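Predict both folds.
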Amino acid sequence: MILFESRIEGKKTEFGYIRDVFESFGCSFCSNFEYHEGKFDSILYREDGETVYLRMPFRVIDGELDHYSAYIQFERPFVIKHVVNLGLDYDENSLLTVTGGLSQFQDPIDKDGHIRDKSRWVKAGEEKIEKMLSSIDHELVS
């Protein structure tokens, strides 16, 4: 994981508004969230089971996540790499009972994989954030 400084850190906005803007840039709201904090993810690179993500965490300062009008404040963004097994998963959790069906998801082999060329991914993350912020029709509150 590589934390980096960005002008998004500390900015406040309405959750639903920024979610809609970010989604138009291929960025998604992570479904694994708490009602007082969450994150937006964007894929910077994916190949052969390796995915490099831009992750923009935030906390809720008023309201409840995932309501449109919840007011959020961004924290320091970071880049993270996940490595997954592209083959079949044969552990005891890989096949569920016949009534449950098959599990198509595997845990990453490495949720925080080693990132080569760190400056490249920090720059890519910074550029993605700047592109999204420049498309916003009003300035985010500090």
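Second protein follows, with its predicted structure tokens after the sequence.
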Amino acid sequence: MKTAGKKLRLLLAALCLVMIVFLLLPLFFGFFSGGMVLLPFFAAVGYAAVRYDRLLAIADRKAKWGRAVLKVGIALLTAFGILLAGLSVWMAAWAARPADEQAQTVIVLGCKVHGDEPSTMLRRRLDAAIDWANKNPQSSIIVTGGKGNGEDKAEAEVMRNYLIANGIEPRRIYLENQAENTLENLELSAKIVRQNGLDSNAVVVTDHFHQLRAALFARKAGLEASPLSCYTQWYFLPVYWCRELLALLRALVLGF
């Protein structure tokens, strides 16, 4: 029984080590991600798993309170891990839902642009929107995203130009170039929907990890949203997923 428990702890430690490597990976590409905030959590869980017997021995030498403190610490780490796992299941389940074939409004959420060109991630979102628009010629497309730090143009302007260059008629495209975050993306897009009499049943185009929070904000803005997800590089998915977990927690607790 003890051997099985030790093997499980070693497996948990190995998983934590893998997550740490993935969370540090963006540094080799020259950028920092908010998902790295979870590095101490995975480090603490991995260390506790490997050094559990040693920690117990140390706790036993600290009189009555030593083992109690250790148990509380492990319980807190476990509870937080269960919370993250539950949110991850929710995120994955929502992203796996099919897009509503009856929806006539497409909302493409912006992200980083480089000069006049969309980033790789944004290009994948736009390509997914183009594919949907070609299959649904009556649909309208809202591109949303303001001018971020280090960007020469608003993301929405670059997005519109990319859509037009790839055969989407300009009359089908609505521009929202003020939003600075996901909540504003959906709130300002909903305003465009109401002002132009567009279908409030919308397909939201973004990455898998982003879909649930986008849907929560869409509902808050008075829209019915279904997900249309694009591909995310597998080696970046863990760090983006962890960042999104923290953003989802903030959205659920603080509402933004």
